[in-house]
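// run 5 | inverse folding | seed 20
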């Protein structure tokens, strides 16, 4: 288990380039299983979760060429389905959440797929019902072995169908969509997730020869095709990393330009930061955040306390609420952070309270933060990162805090942020990997 040692407060300045999006990478890498032809993907983030998925595909028999740490070619000529019954497969696949999305492509191409309990952040119940409900609608049979936590789906024949998903699950939509593109007939997926990364997956599948309409909406219409071909694809910048950098700049009073941040794809993220009183300027494809002595949280029009809450896209992404929460600790004013989608993601506030933040955890989903308006700095502390986003929130807290902080279990941060220590040190942070 590695740790970060941070000597704060750090004031940073300069330019930073966001990595490619983790959650898009996981989807489009799984999509390469849909064709025997070569698929080239650029701007792949060099992070633990993605590297595990690439290794998993390689172990399944996919030929992989690495042109650079961020650009790969995949050719899924022959897949070794026997491997999916091995202990090695279970271990590798269960090291991340996104690997669940190999199921849709395998079901469509080979009529069967297996999966162990997926990994990913331990942030509350993370069911998979939507995935299997969708596969069943397409005609697959589903089995679950509870003692082993092992899922199997198989089908002699799949057939297009209409389905209303029980929730707009991101990986669920991606999985069912990838099965549907090679399923004969028309499939309509209503209550589909429609965030930019699902749109990117749809666009890539279309370039591979799939017939998809309704891209960007919650109703996807897919006319199944017999085969898909190879293509080239470039991954968008990671909006969660972009949001993390905006929050970090505000909290540490740093002046930062986030280069090539694809601001048009950020949805409500800029509005949510401006409601926190944080100034940011969109300059073409870049986002400039000036050094701000203070930022004051707005109230709603009727004067009531601001709430920052998550919702399925185009609502605010749940993956940034930990960052909003930490940033609020040094704002002027108060805010209610309401994490509706995950039930165990706010417990890390105890660590911020230890650092001197004023936070009341109302219940597992809601925390009220009373900002210090930079009057009292947080103090350095020793902590452990429970999940990716809490980890980066603690890193932001430590960068703003007076004195030395240590964050243990930074593998959680490395799952989603590429060389974050080196990149932040280049613009003036003081982070040591130990
Ligand atoms: C690998 C990957 O891509 N992971 C992302 C993906 O996870 P993942 O696809 O696992 O998340 P889901 O979209 O399935 O669901 C996330 C949570 O929100 C709840 N829910 C979902 C939809 C809905 O309409 N109502 C509702 O309450 C679910 O019950 C669950 O607790 O999407 C999540 C939601 O953006 C992100 O946090 C994860 O980073
Ligand atoms: C919850 C997250 O990831 P995962 O779904 O991979 O656990 C995240 O990226 O914040």
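// decoded
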């Amino acid at each position: 288990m590695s740790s970060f040692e941070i000597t704060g407060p750090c004031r940073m300045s300069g330019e930073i380039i966001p990595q490619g999006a983790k959650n898009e990478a996981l989807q489009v890498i799984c999509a390469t299983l849909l064709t025997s032809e070569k698929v080239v993907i650029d701007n792949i983030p060099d992070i633990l979760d993605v590297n595990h998925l690439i290794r998993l595909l390689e172990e399944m028999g996919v030929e992989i060429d690495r042109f650079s740490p961020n650009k790969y070619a995949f050719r899924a000529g022959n897949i070794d389905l026997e491997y999916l019954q091995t202990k090695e497969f279970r271990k590798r696949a269960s090291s991340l959440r996104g690997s669940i999305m190999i199921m849709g492509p395998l079901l469509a191409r080979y009529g069967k797929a297996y999966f162990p309990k997926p990994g990913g952040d331990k942030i509350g119940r993370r069911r998979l019902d939507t995935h299997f409900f969708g596969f069943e609608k397409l005609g697959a049979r589903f089995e679950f072995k509870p003692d082993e936590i092992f899922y199997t789906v198989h089908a002699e024949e799949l057939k297009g169908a209409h389905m209303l998903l029980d929730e707009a699950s991101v990986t669920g939509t991606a999985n069912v969509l990838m099965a549907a593109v090679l399923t004969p007939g028309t499939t309509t997926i209503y209550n589909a997730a429609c965030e930019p990364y699902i749109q990117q997956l749809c666009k890539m599948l279309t370039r591979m020869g799939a017939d998809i309409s309704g891209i960007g909406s919650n109703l996807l219409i897919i006319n199944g095709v017999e085969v898909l071909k190879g293509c080239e694809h470039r991954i968008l910048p990671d909006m969660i990393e972009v949001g993390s950098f905006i929050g970090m700049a505000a909290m540490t009073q740093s002046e930062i330009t986030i280069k090539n941040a694809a601001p048009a794809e950020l949805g409500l993220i800029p509005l949510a930061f401006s409601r926190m009183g944080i100034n940011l300027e969109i300059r073409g494809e870049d986002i400039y955040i000036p050094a701000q002595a203070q930022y004051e949280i707005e109230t709603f029009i009727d004067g009531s306390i601001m709430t920052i809450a998550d919702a399925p896209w185009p609502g605010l992404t749940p993956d940034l609420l930990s960052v909003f929460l930490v940033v609020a600790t040094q704002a002027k004013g108060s805010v209610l952070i309401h994490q509706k989608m995950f039930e165990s993601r706010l417990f890390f506030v105890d660590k911020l309270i230890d650092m001197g933040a004023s936070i009341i955890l109302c219940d597992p989903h809601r925390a009220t933060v009373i900002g210090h308006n930079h009057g009292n700095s947080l103090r350095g502390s020793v902590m452990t990162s429970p999940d990716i986003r809490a980890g980066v929130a603690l890193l932001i807290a430590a960068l703003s805090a007076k004195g030395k902080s240590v964050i243990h279990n930074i593998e959680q941060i490395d799952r989603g942020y590429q060389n974050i220590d080196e990149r932040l040190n280049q613009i003036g942070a003081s982070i040591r990997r130990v």
